[in-house]
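Lab notebook, design round three. We kept the backbone fixed and only want residue identities now. Task for the bench partner: fill in a sequence for the structure below.
Input structure tokens:
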């Protein structure tokens, strides 16, 4: 099951990256890796994670920076469906602007449906919906001038 999930996430990631211009992951020092925000610590996936929720409000400048780094890292590292990843994306979106927050909410709703569909005939479609919501969120991030997978 995890191989299928990771395969689906990678396929959606690749399909989203083939749809238009843009050259790789935004931000970082030219190597595609995001640079941690001041006061942030690197998480095991390599994304910048605030040390506390109050840190997120202080370093989320511009608003949505942390959330967009989280979703880009989840897509890049194929960890989107790992426990806690979507919850962290949703939680960090509290300080983001409305389009990013709305996209994070849609991602969280799709993830909740996918968890409920685990083991059923609807699971593949629900997993694909999570991947599509994450790619859409990454596009919203890119449109907002924040890190994306474009």
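Proposed sequence:
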């Amino acid at each position: 099951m995890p191989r299928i999930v990771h395969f689906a996430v990678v396929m959606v990631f690749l399909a989203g990256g083939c749809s238009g211009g843009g050259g790789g992951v935004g931000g970082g020092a030219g190597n595609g890796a995001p640079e941690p925000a001041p006061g942030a610590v690197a998480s095991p996936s390599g994304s910048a994670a605030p040390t506390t929720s109050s840190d997120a409000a202080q370093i989320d400048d511009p608003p949505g920076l942390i959330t967009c780094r989280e979703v880009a890292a989840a897509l890049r590292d194929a960890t989107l469906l790992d426990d806690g990843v979507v919850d962290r994306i949703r939680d960090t979106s509290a300080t983001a602007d409305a389009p990013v927050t709305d996209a994070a909410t849609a991602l969280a709703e799709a993830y909740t449906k996918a968890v409920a569909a685990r083991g059923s005939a609807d699971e593949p479609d629900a997993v694909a919906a999570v991947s599509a919501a994450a790619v859409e969120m990454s596009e919203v991030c890119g449109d907002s001038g924040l890190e994306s997978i474009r």
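Keep this in mind before ordering anything: The beta strands are 40-42, 48-50.
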